[in-house]
Specification:
With 291 residues, the chain is of the alpha+beta class. Helices cover 48% and strands 18% of the residues. It contains seven helices and eleven strands. The strands form three sheets. The protein has a five-stranded antiparallel beta sheet, with helices on one face. Helix 3 crosses helix 5. The protein starts with a helix and ends with a helix.
Length: 291
């Protein structure tokens, strides 16, 4: 199925787009909150820069913590199973999020206050800490839900792979008894379709997903590499390096390099590196050509 030009461009520049979107979000949020804080405090005769410092230091502190929050949400995505364990994990993570936020925020404020020749004092009382946690836990949940929603939309936009609940309606019933995975279901925003595993050129690990490459397009499949390998026909699919599995029927040439690694060229023109520790996974007939 053809991939839209915008989706192709976005996936190619996905990391840069995500960084710019987050930077824009935090910039707008810090400016808006800073202005509101200044307007609210200006009547009390407070120095101009202080309300801005409070909001900017808070926003920058959260920005520093955000990579860890992104990692956490990727490693432990929200699922229906294991609700109690997830709740406990997120309570502990939100407490850590709040603690790091407060420490970084107070450190930045104290440093700037010292430069201005003043002393910054933060209220570490139990009541104020509970108040700060109540604010931070809402912020924590906002980001967790935001990241989950964003990844869900991206997966459905590009097409997310899942195993079939039942075998497809095929005329060749011999495939129903096959011990290996032969078809997967792809769910997109408004449609579903089947992909034969024989159409997959190669598979690349990407975090908690395995990306199935078909005609240059990647379809994410939430499964571990080991679990997927156990379901693939070893006569067709072999592991060639730490993160990639290749469909041998898609290979057109193999070259052995002086580093003892190898290089495969697929019919699509894609080249893949075969690590020397995985050379024996290739059929002997494919390994006889050397540089």
């Amino acid at each position: 199925m053809a991939q839209s030009a915008f989706l192709t461009w976005y996936l190619k520049h996905k990391l840069q787009c995500e960084v710019w979107l987050l930077a824009l979000f935090f910039s707008v949020n810090m400016l808006a909150n800073g202005y509101i804080a200044y307007v609210e405090k200006s009547s009390s005769g407070i120095v101009f820069w202080k309300p801005w410092l409070w909001e900017i230091s808070s926003g920058l502190s959260i920005l520093l913590i955000l990579p860890g929050l992104i990692w956490l949400s990727e490693q432990y995505p929200l699922r229906i199973q294991g609700i109690r364990q997830q709740i406990l994990r997120h309570i502990l993570a939100s407490l850590l999020f709040c603690a790091l936020h407060l420490v970084l925020m107070v450190t930045v404020r104290s440093f700037v206050y010292q430069l201005a020749g003043e002393d910054y004092r933060f209220d570490w009382s139990t009541s104020n800490l509970l108040y700060e946690y109540a604010k931070d836990v809402r912020l924590y949940l906002f980001f967790i839900i935001l990241f989950e929603t964003y990844r869900f939309v991206i997966r459905r936009w590009r097409g997310e792979v899942s195993k079939l609940a039942k075998a497809p309606d095929l005329t060749d019933t011999s495939e129903l008894t096959e011990p290996y995975l032969k078809h997967v279901l792809v769910k997109m925003l408004n449609q579903e379709f089947l992909i034969r595993l024989s159409q997959v050129d190669y598979i690349r690990a990407a975090g908690n997903y395995q990306e199935l490459y078909v005609k240059g397009r990647a379809y994410p499949f939430r499964i571990t590499q080991m679990a997927l390998l156990q379901q693939l026909d070893p006569a067709e699919f072999v592991k060639i390096n730490r993160s990639e599995i290749v469909n041998l029927t898609a290979v057109v040439s193999f070259v052995r390099e002086r580093s003892n690694d190898g290089q495969l060229t697929l019919h699509s023109g894609t080249t893949l590196t075969v690590h020397k520790n995985h050379l024996n996974n290739l059929p002997i007939a494919l390994r006889i050509v050397e540089m």
